[in-house]
Design the sequence.
């Protein structure tokens, strides 16, 4: 019986290790920066993403995947048909404030879920592939990706969070930060849905 138990323990240990190994292969931690840093070397097709942060929880992690854009037509009717390229990667925004930056290859991305653990209360919310949780990275550009807002109020199984388009509100601040850096790339609005206030600002006076 002891021999059997030992074999069973070994089996479960190997199984657990295999699961963690699979997750590590399927996921990738992506560097989140506190300051602008221009991609270098073989990163000619990279752009910079700027995320404004309004997080009232101590831990917040975004799980992101690059969208296979050939699947968009079908996904418009059924979000479950959205397909992805490559690995899922993690953007750890824990304890971040004001603004963060990520250097990513050009492409269209989906935030697939958000993890907001709190002590012994793990909590993940799926975005259900909503286009409101998407962003576009254009190469050799600084791309506003959105503002993430996470409320201080939470329960065991819920927390209020939003991915906001505040491009018009944050544009002047972002321009100031870019001017203070040595980067001369243009600024683009890369969030997946329109900011009606910014669109209104673009209308001719009297139009």
Sequence:
């Amino acid at each position: 019986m002891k021999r059997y138990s030992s074999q069973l323990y070994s089996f479960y240990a190997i199984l657990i290790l295999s699961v963690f190994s699979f997750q590590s292969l399927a996921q990738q931690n992506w560097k989140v920066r506190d300051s602008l840093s221009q991609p270098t070397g073989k990163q000619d097709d990279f752009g910079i993403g700027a995320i404004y942060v309004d997080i009232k929880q101590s831990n917040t992690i975004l799980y992101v995947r690059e969208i296979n854009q050939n699947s968009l037509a079908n996904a418009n009717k059924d979000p479950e048909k959205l397909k992805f390229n490559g690995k899922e990667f993690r953007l750890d925004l824990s304890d971040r404030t004001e603004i963060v930056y990520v250097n990513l290859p050009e492409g269209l991305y989906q935030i697939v879920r958000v993890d907001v653990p709190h002590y012994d209360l793990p909590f993940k919310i799926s975005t259900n592939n909503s286009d409101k949780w998407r962003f576009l990275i254009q190469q050799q550009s600084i791309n506003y990706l959105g503002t993430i807002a996470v409320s201080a109020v939470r329960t065991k199984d819920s927390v209020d969070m939003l991915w906001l388009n505040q491009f018009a509100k944050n544009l002047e601040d972002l321009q100031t930060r870019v001017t203070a850096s040595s980067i001369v790339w243009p600024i683009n609005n890369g969030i997946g849905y329109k900011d009606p206030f910014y669109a209104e600002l673009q209308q001719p006076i009297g139009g």
